[in-house]
Amino acid sequence: MNGLLSPYDSRRPVFVAGFAAALIVMAVAAILPYARLPLPVIAAFLPMAGAISCFVNGLTAYFLAIQFRASREPFLGALAGAYGFVAVAAIAQAGPQATPWIWLVWHSLYPAFMLAALLVHAARLRRGKSNRLHQLSVLLMAGAPLMAGLLAWLVIAGPGALPRLTPGDACIVAAANIFVAAAYLKIMRLRDYLSPWVAVALLANFGDALLQWPSASDTLGWYAGPVLSLVAAAIMLCALIFEFHLLYDQLQAATHNLMQRALRDGLTGAFNRGYFMEQCPRELRRAVREHAPLSLLLIDVDHFKSYNDRRGHQMGDQCLIAIVSAIRQVIRRPADFIARYGGEEFAVVLPQTDGVGAQKLAEAVRAQIFELCLSDEMEMGFVTVSVGITTFDPAFDSYDMDELVRRADQALYQAKRDGRDTSRVYKVMIA
User: Fold this and answer.
1) Structural domain of residue 385, as residue ranges?
2) CA geometry: angle at 230 spanning 236 and 53, to 5°?
3) Average pLDDT in the 60-76 region?
4) pLDDT higher for 377 or 118?
5) Count of Cβ atoms closer than 10 Å to residue 375 Cβ
6) Does residue 8 register a pLDDT over 50?
7) H or E element at residue 299
8) Alpha carbon distance 382, 130 (integer Å)
9) Sheet of strand 385-392: strand arrangement
10) Cα(309)–Cα(174) distance, rounded to whole angstroms?
């Protein structure tokens, strides 16, 4: 089953992420010359952007934490800490003096936590999983949001004591993002599902730094920067949700395969005896509710033990597979089913089928198997089957599944006594 750090099956994730990165680069290039352009004051913009960013990045951190708990991959835990840090920092923006410092804390420590996650992953690639790396990733996952909250409290509590920021600070932020992006590409090399989208997020963080600083408040760059970050965060979240969708589909397929293996015979593909013992009583109860007949065929391969001993077990297996295939060519209704009842014995349940219809189907099955021309060399003939038939009619009968099987078995025994390669009906046998 694929995970976030599994190699991708095609290059499509890289192409889609590359397209998103190209759009981000074009948007930054188009807006940057007009970043200082004044725009109308929107008082609710900053609180709204912070709330949305907190929600989106918080969900991203949560999904990464879930994957970390399931896979115990240290990189995912450390990455969850980086996004948890952004979620807390985003909601802490408040006040004209505190907001620039919150922005600086956000855009400088986010790449720092991303770098820490990369170093953890590099250690994981060199040494494999270890308790120490696991503990370190847990520390980053829990400690990064706490650090964001502490730094935000210090910034908001004492804005007058903070020095004035300069354009050089923005250069440091941009350089930090470029350095981490280069380290990320070197270590991760875009080899897994998650890597391209983290690269897009780092690129968006760099673009946000270029647009917002040194733009003044209520300018095009000041508004465009948070929007760019929100778009990138939303892209990352959508990528994670899509990955969870793929994992869910794989889980459903795996569950279906396991259920099929539990219900079907591994050799012939017919249902197994357990399925027959569970499903046949249900069909009997349905027959009673619907006042419709139900027939049961017990099919036994004649002299199969001798055939298996002479031809070998592999040829014996191929014989059973061919017989089930022949039965399926005759029994085609969705409600009918075939089960391997014993070693060379098969049960066919036929809902809404009376005795006459069951006998016709039994003869068709017997003829179909004979036409396979499965040669029994020692006997100079072909493999044949005997069929026992019984029918449950709710208008006259009230017995259970055990009695139904017993009657079909008696009819099969009668077919064996009458020379094999034939079918017998229970009612005929007792007449």
Assistant:
1) 273-430
2) 95
3) 90
4) 118
5) 13
6) yes
7) strand 294-301
8) 63
9) 337-340, 345-351, 294-301, 385-392, 423-425
10) 79
Distance from C-alpha of 401 to C-alpha of 2, rounded to nearest angstrom: 44
Strand partners, 337: 349
Which among 117, 104, 177 has a CA at the least distance from the CA of 143? 117
Mean pLDDT calculated for residue range 190-197: 80
Task: Examine the fold and report which residue of 211, 233, 259 is the final residue of a domain before the chain moves on.
Answer: 259
pLDDT at 428 over 50: no
CATH label of the domain that carries residue 413: 3.30.70.270
Query: Do 83 and 42 touch, CB atoms closer than 8 A?
Result: no
Q: Do 250 and 277 share a domain, yes or no?
A: no
Q: pLDDT, tens digit, for every residue of 273-289?
A: 999 999 999 999 999 99
Residue 290, token pair as written in the block: 């619907």
Mean pLDDT to the nearest integer, 33-39: 89
Contact 123, 137 (CB under 8 A): no
Query: Which of 50-70 are b and which e, b meaning 16 or more Cβ less than 10 Å from the residue's Cβ?
Result: bebbbebbbbbbbbbbebbee
φ, ψ at 373 (rounded to 5°): 55, 45
Of the residues 259, 289, 318, the one at which a domain ends: 259
User: For the whole prediction, is pTM greater than 0.85?
Assistant: no
Q: Is residue 156 part of a domain?
A: yes
pLDDT of residue 378: 47
Give the per-residue pLDDT at 373: 74
Is residue 5 assigned to a domain? no
* 52 and 123 share one domain: yes
> Which range among 12-16, 169-173, 313-317, 387-391 shows the weakest confidence by mean pLDDT?
169-173
Query: Are residue 43 and residue 74 in the same domain, yes or no?
Result: yes
Residues 313 and 424 in one domain: yes
In the DSSP assignment, the letter for residue 264 is B
- Burial of residue 154 (number of CB atoms within 10 Å: 0-12, 13-18, 19+): middle
Phi, psi torsion values for 383, nearest 5 degrees: -65, 135
> How many structural domains is the chain composed of?
2
Q: What angle do CA 41, 44, 50 make, to 5 degrees?
A: 120
pLDDT score for 160: 61
Judge contact between 76 and 67, C-beta under 8 A. yes
Distance CA 58, CA 332 (A): 53
